[in-house]
Amino acid sequence: MVATTEILADLAQRVGGDRVAASSLVPAGGDPHSYEPTPADAKRVAKADVTFTNHLLLEPQSLIKTIDSNAPEGTPNVSLAEAAESYGAHVIPLVENIGLDVLWLGLRVRGTGKERGATRTSSVQLTATKLDGPGQLVAYLTESLGQPDRYFDSTDGLGPQDSTTLPPAAHTHLNWAFTKPGIYHLTLTGALDIGGGKPLQPLGTGTFTFAVGVDPHTVKPAAGGTATVLDDGHTDLTVDLDSGRLTAYSDAKKIGAAQSEVPAGQVVIDVPNKALATVPDDPRFAFLGKPGAQIHQLPQAVLGKHVHGEIDPHLWEDVANAKAYVQLMRDTLISADPDGEQVYRDNSANYLRELDELDTYVRTELATIPTDRRQLITTHDAFGYLASAYGMTIAGFVVPNPAQEPSVEQVRKLSETIRNLKVPAVFVEPNLAQRASVLTQVAKDQNVRVCSLYGDSFDEHAQSYVAMMRHNADELKRCLGETR
């Protein structure tokens, strides 16, 4: 039996006991959000009697495709986060509350596309087909270790290579860089790939207007008429799989109470002068211009490849949700191996009692933390369920682009958050420590502790789900509840 992550494999092994051998496709300490499968992974899936994924876009689509295309026909292939709701799991929205002082702009696919034959292994292609403006546009992703990945780049002319793909119901973040101030019109075209060698299905085309370094309220949108100006909050250039339309999809409060999206041709996106950035002295970023040159850039904000949906996929940070996973795994193993039914029922019953004790332990420990000290500042937005279930609060901050020095404003905001909330500690996930240099430096400057929380994976100090959650409870109590 295979599972995508160490956490899922551990839960499944506890249910299966001696009748199963559960292993994780993502290696120890790996990041399930970005892990790329190997041919050996495909062979492991092909030999598995049962496959468990978390999904809700936790895993990259390349891993999901590897599983769905190699899992033996007729064997259980269960997406736990979706299916566990019928066992009492509680899901919450993924709230991204990063306080940028400019618009946070990404890409999104909405709708299911079922009438077009779309599945979870389908993909939507978004291609930049035309750009009008005084300079060049580059929309690029900065990966975890600072490597840029260009999605749309007009500096060498737009062509088929200026495209990217997203799974259904997914969203991602990008940097949007403009080489000169002025008015730009960017045309995007969508197409659906349902796989199987079938031709791409055309979706819609839309033209978005950017006001770069000029007053956006004086700029006419591509379709004419009255413009909807977007200048703060979180917005995505979006293709709808069901209607084929391209829109700007945003928080309703940012656009107007009556709507959460605006047709592409009616949008003006503000790229103000406070979005000015300096091209880094790094040859990897030469496509932006000469080192030291000034560009206007809407930042990616979240470090690394960050494709996700609208629901937070980290359900296991609430022990009650882990219990739902265990019950679903029990019934799945019984369906695949009826002869082991009693073993699976006994194992799961024992484990569920242990998880009840764990839930009580976490709740009791965190209840000792004074209410005004229950603030979480972390390297990764993975703890919404922990906060929701156990009375904590998530305090957001900007993760800067590793190719550039963080702006004074970004460091100031993070410092103010720590200072104003009187946060006694910040938290780093062990497997993401390399991403935490700014967080740890600001913590040092503010004389607060740097502590550890486990989110997606184990290490040598926590090698099971129970050990991980007990550590998290102990660490939160030690770092937030104790005075120095």
Name the average pLDDT. Answer: 89
Please give the alpha-carbon distance between the first and last residues.
47 Å
Percentage of residues in strands: 15-25%
The order of strands across the largest sheet is 9-6-12-13-18-14
Q: Report the major sheet.
A: 6 strands, mixed
Number of distinct beta strands: 24
Main location: other
GO molecular function: metal ion binding
GO biological process, one term: cell adhesion
Pfam families: ZnuA
List the topology elements.
Elements: E1 2-3, H1 6-16, E2 23-24, H2 39-46, E3 51-53, H3 61-70, E4 77-79, H4 80-83, E5 104-110, E6 123-132, E7 137-142, E8 148-153, E9 163-166, E10 171-173, E11 175-178, E12 182-193, E13 201-212, E14 228-230, E15 234-240, E16 246-250, H5 252-255, E17 261-263, E18 267-271, E19 276-278, E20 294-298, H6 319-336, H7 341-367, E21 375-376, H8 384-390, E22 393-394, H9 408-420, E23 425-428, H10 437-445, E24 449-452, H11 465-481
Parallel strand pairs: 1-2, 1-3, 3-4, 5-15, 13-18, 14-18, 21-22, 23-24
Antiparallel strand pairs: 5-10, 6-9, 6-12, 7-8, 7-11, 11-20, 12-13, 15-16, 16-17, 19-20
What features would you describe in this structure?
It holds the Pfam family ZnuA. A hairpin with a 5-residue loop joins strand 7 (137-142) and strand 8. 26% of the residues lie in helices and 24% in strands. By secondary structure, it is of the alpha/beta class. The chain has helices spanning 6-16, 39-46, 61-70, 80-83, 252-255, 319-336, 341-367, 384-390, 408-420, 437-445, 465-481; strands at residues 2-3, 23-24, 51-53, 77-79, 104-110, 123-132, 137-142, 148-153, 163-166, 171-173, 175-178, 182-193, 201-212, 228-230, 234-240, 246-250, 261-263, 267-271, 276-278, 294-298, 375-376, 393-394, 425-428, 449-452. The strands form 6 sheets. Strands 9-6-12-13-18-14 form a 6-stranded mixed beta sheet, with no helix packed on it. A 5-stranded mixed beta sheet has the order 10-5-15-16-17. The termini are far apart. Mean pLDDT is 89; it is low at 252-258 and 398-405.
